[in-house]
Amino acid sequence: MSNKSPADWYSIRGFHVYSRWNIGRNYPPPTPPPTPPPTPPSATLLVYNVTQGNAFNLNGNIFTLDTDLPNFSYKSTTITSIPNGSIDDTDIGISQLPNPTQIIKATIGNSVTSIGEGAFTKCSSLSSVTISNSVTSIGQAAFALCTSLSFVTIPNSVTSIMDAMFIGCTSLSSFTIGSSVTSIGDSVFSKCSSLLSVTIPNLVTSIGIAVFSECILLSSVTIGSSVASIGNFAFSECTSLSSVTIPNSVTSIGDDAFVDSGLTTVTIATVNTLGISGSPILFFFGATNITVTYI
C-alpha cells in the first residue's frame, strides 16, 4: 500500500497524479510592478501666424513659411525661464524669428519659473496667454503693448504685479489676479482702454501710481479689504467710473488719484493722508457733482 499522503496528489480532469513539487519549497515574493516614469513637464508653446514667405533660422534649421502654412508652433519642455526681452533670444532656443508681432498664442509650461522684463512687449498679435502655476515672478512690462490681448489670469503662484506689466494693452477687457498677490505696481493697467471692471484681491496692500489711469471704459472697481494705500493718479481719467467705495483699511490716497474721472458718488472712511496737503480738491479734482459719504 502506498505511503503517499493526500497532499502529494493533484488532479487534472479526473486523473490523480502524484507530485512532490510543493513540499518544502520556498518561493520568492512576487516581483513588484515597475515604478511609473515621472510626469514630463508641460511644454512652453509659442504659436505664430506667419503669412509671409520669409526664411528664418530655428535651432540651426532653416524654415520657410508661406500662405499655405499660416500657423507655426514652437514647443519646448526645456525652457526654465524666459529672459528679458526674449522672444528672439537664443537663451530659450529661438533665434532670428521673422517677427515677434506674429505670435498669436503663448502657453507657458510648468517648467518655467520666471518671465523676464519686456519678454512679450509689443507682441501686437498676441491674443491668448496661459501662465502655469510654476511661474513665481513676472518682470516689468512683460506684456506691455500687446494690443490684441483680451484676457489674462495671473496665477496664485505670483505675489507681485510689477510696473507697466500690461500698459497699453488696448484690447484687455478683463483680468483675474491670483489670490496670493500682495502688491500692484505703477502703471500696470494704464491705457487699457477696453478694461471694464476691476477686483483687487483681499491680500493686496498697495495700489501703485497711475495703475488704472486712462482706462476710459472702466466702470466698476472693487477694492480689497487690505489695501492701505492708493497711489497718485491711480484712477485718473477713468471717465466711465461713476462710483467707488474705499474700504476703511485705506490710510493714504495720493494726489489726483481720481482726477478727471467720472465719479459722482464716493463712499469713504476717514483717511489719514489725503493728497500732499490733505485737500479733497487734489483727490477729486475734475469730478463734478460729487457726493461723498463718510463711513
TrEMBL record:
A Pfam family the protein falls into: LRR_5
SUPFAM superfamilies in the record: L domain-like
InterPro entries: LRR_5, LRR_dom_sf, Surface_bspA-like
Matching PANTHER family: IG-LIKE DOMAIN-CONTAINING PROTEIN, SURFACE ANTIGEN
Protein name: Surface antigen BspA-like
